[in-house]
Amino acid sequence: MKKSMKGTIAIAAGIALLLGGGGSLAYWQGTASTSSASIQTGELSVSLTSGATWQVKRGATTTAIANISTFKMVPGDQVIYTVPFQTVAAGTNLTASGAIAWGGYSSIPAHLTSSATGTYNSTAISGTTFTVAPNATANGSLVFTLTWPYGANATNDTAAATMNQNWNLGATTVTVTQNLNGATP
Fold first, then answer.
1. CATH class given for the domain over 43-179
2. Is 129 in contact with 123 (CB distance < 8 Å)?
3. For the chain, which residues make up each domain, given as ranges?
4. How many CB atoms sit inside 10 A of residue 68's CB?
5. How many CA atoms lie within 13 A of 60 on its CB side?
6. Using CA atoms, how far apart are residues 98 and 88, in angstroms rounded to an integer?
7. Across the chain, which distance is largest between two alpha carbons, in Å?
8. Are 145 and 112 in contact (CB under 8 A)?
9. Residue 10 has what pLDDT?
10. Got the DSSP string for the chain?
11. For 122-171, how does the pLDDT look when each residue is reduced to its tens digit (9 = 90+)?
């Protein structure tokens, strides 16, 4: 055999080894995929909804206040501010409670009276807490009332104490919080 032939055979054998030609690799393989198994999460939220109203009651007559920024309260008025809100609770095992932090009355003169009440899911809110309606969208309403008596305590109605003042009836927050196993966190 010639040297060139031996060289060609050696090169061919080297290429065969590089390409795996020294034997064959065989194995079996199978693949299976699960079907769609997505999980949907729930929701717990609270928001103020449209429809807040301002009213003034004087004697037996209650009228809407068209623009609270131009309204001027005087002795004998009772101002009523109503703010609607809504909760959404969606979850198979979701229980939640609501809390109201009533605010805004620290700056009014002591002889004026104020109250903060509310309803939620057609039930009066007692104090500062309520139970969030499970698996539902439910509506509530916060009602702020400021009463300025006429005549009584008139000596306290001095220019410095009551004229040209700004009193904030807001600064109230509504919070909803998930309960774990029915217990308040």
1. mainly beta
2. no
3. 43-179
4. 14
5. 0
6. 12
7. 134
8. no
9. 64
10. --HHHHHHHHHHHHHHHHTTTTS----------PPP------EEEEEE-S--EEEEEETTEEEE-S-TTT----TT-EEEEEEEEEEEEE-TT-EEEEEEE----TTS-TTSEEEEEEEETTEE-BTTEEEPPTTEEEEEEEEEEEE--SSTTGGG--HHHHTT--------EEEEEEEBTTB--
11. 999 988 899 999 999 999 999 988 888 887 555 566 656 677 877 776 67
Whole-structure pTM value: 0.71
Beta strand 43-48 with 113-120 is: unpaired
Residue 94: closest CA among 40, 131, 42, 129: 42
Count of C-beta atoms within a 10 Å radius of residue 133? 19
Burial classification of residue 148, based on how many CB atoms lie within 10 Å of its CB (0-12 exposed, 13-18 middle, 19 or more buried) = buried
Torsion of CA 69, 73, 77, 79, to 10 degrees: 30
What's the rounded Cα separation, in Å, for the pair 106 and 13? Answer: 97
The per-residue pLDDT for range 44-64, each reduced to its tens digit, is 999 999 999 999 999 999 999
